[in-house]
Specification:
Blueprint: H1 16-19, H2 27-42, H3 61-83, H4 95-101, H5 109-128, E1 138-141, E2 144-147, H6 148-168
Antiparallel strand pairs: 1-2
Helix pairs in contact: 2-5, 2-6, 3-5, 3-6
Length: 182
């Protein structure tokens, strides 16, 4: 189940933009390893780079990282909620409101990376302990049906999407293109 890609109907079509970036294979292993690559990309962004905005009105690098951490935390909660068969739908997350209220620039990037490491560790442990039938459990989040499997793949793809932005738009190194799946 950990290696099975989510199918149409497992999640809102909006998230294909993320799931298509994730390579085939065990998504738990992907989540455990890809974070190390992303951390290595970000760890060298210090000083003015942390508050750099590639365009006026865009998030700074540290705000963007805080957004990814917040999103991963929310989606991990969705995984737990749905895996435990809670029958009440979960609300959406308005990313721009959350980013504005996060006070991200008050903390250095290193603190955000440490927080992300803790969040990712919790996610990997949660997924690693799922019963095989837990992967196909579905629930309602942000008004759409979603499976536990799809949420794991969305988290992995969301990180890859932002890694590409950090490389290309924030100049943090050569982009490592991840071709979308067809």
């Amino acid at each position: 189940m950990r290696s099975a890609r989510p199918r149409a109907g497992d999640f809102n079509d909006y998230y294909v933009r993320y799931t298509s970036l994730v390579p085939d294979g065990d998504v738990v292993q992907t989540l455990a390893v890809q974070w190390l690559v992303t951390r290595d990309l970000l760890v060298h962004a210090v000083g003015d780079l942390e508050t750099f905005r590639y365009e006026p009105g865009k998030w700074s690098l540290v705000e963007s990282v805080a957004h990814v951490v917040d999103t991963e935390r929310v989606f991990t909660q969705r995984i737990l909620w749905i895996a435990r068969r809670a029958d009440v739908g979960l609300p959406s997350m308005e990313q721009d409101d959350w980013a504005r209220l996060a006070n991200a620039e008050a903390r250095p990037l290193a603190k955000h990376l440490a927080e992300w490491q803790a969040v990712r560790g919790g996610l990997v442990a949660l997924l690693d302990g799922l019963a095989p039938d837990g992967w196909s459990r579905a629930g309602l989040a942000a008004g759409s049906r979603v499976t536990v499997r799809a949420l794991a793949w969305i988290i992995a793809g969301h990180e890859l999407h932002h890694r590409r932005l950090w490389a290309d738009s924030y100049g943090l190194g050569p982009s490592r293109p991840v071709p979308p799946r067809e």
